[in-house]
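Slides due. Your pick:
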Amino acid sequence: MITQKILLIAGILCLIAALALVLRPRWVAAVPAFLGLLLLHLSYYIAVPPMTFAFWGIATLITVALFYLSPSGEPDGHSSSNLYVGFTALAGGMLGILLAPRLLVLGVVLGAAMGQLAYSRTPRRQVDALPVDDVLALLCRQVPPCYRRRVDRLHCHHGNCHRLNTIKLSTEMKRLKHILTLVIALTITTMGWSQAQQIPERNQPSKFAIKKVDFDHIKEVISNPKNAYYYPKLMKAYNSNDTTLSIEAWRNFYYGYTFQEDYNPFRESIYSNVVEQLYYKQPHSRAECDSIEKYAELSLNDNMFDMNQMNFYIYVLKEKKKHARAAVCQYRLDRLIAAIMSSGKGTKEEPWVVIAPEHEYNIINFLGFVATDHETLDGGIDYIKVQPVAGKSAEGFYFDISRMMQIAALKFPDI
């Protein structure tokens, strides 16, 4: 616990240092910012998916490379310009978060652009403007050699050489402008896409098509090391908090678990009762929250598809202000429910397929109903009756438990 707090404090200090370097650049601000992100992740106060680390790690390396590869004598920005760009970038990022977490990066980019535009209109910027000759000299150091030769010809003073080369330079500058615009557009698009993929939004509606579960096909793909749905790959992605998995991946992960050696349809962790007893003693003290978090995590390590424990875990993480980790866990829960609901419509003709008995009641509760009765029908079908709800016509829902019962008969023949 002490180590986590030390890492938390160190991460915050790194972020403060990065902010200071943004406002008064003396080195690459991206380095302490990335280090702060890493330390906060290691402190377990936030959860960052591996793809996010990879993306921002590459971005940091590019920033460092640009810093060291810049020509010597490059004019540094003034504090006033850094304040304009820095604060507008922060404001853009905050506005992006308020609108939607996915717009964070786009908000930062647009904010920085607006700050630079605002600074360009100030009297100080006009005073700092470089003479034309200095601008051309600076440009010569930035453009590729093929363009640089054309710029050098501006020093030719024979006849119309100066005018002709000025026209050539203008043409080449237009090309450079188009290339620069394309690069900026691609950068913003890539960063926005990455941010959209990596930040889960709580209770985000999952759009999926209804698809009948084919266990033979699932067994084939999860057993093939070359397939994207090879089960060890899916397990690794799940354990690393990957939030980019598709509904199809979650379907193969959930239903493919029935082919794993440790699958037990009636599995119940020895820690689950401890969590439930503590959970229902609200309100909770700090020590009780620590206990709930500890035993819920142990319970999920033993039974990763225990949705009740997921709910308890999400609750206690929010109580302890660990909102990022709670969001990842909520995302997992939402995706599991979406995978189940994509297997049917809850009707007799198209029942939902589950691999554990309690998942029937998890789906019922998720839909806002309360179960009142349970009936087992022929063909491995369960029918759960529910209390009437105003505005809803459903009287009950059907679940397919045939796969679950098949494995139970093989592993527990005496039951």
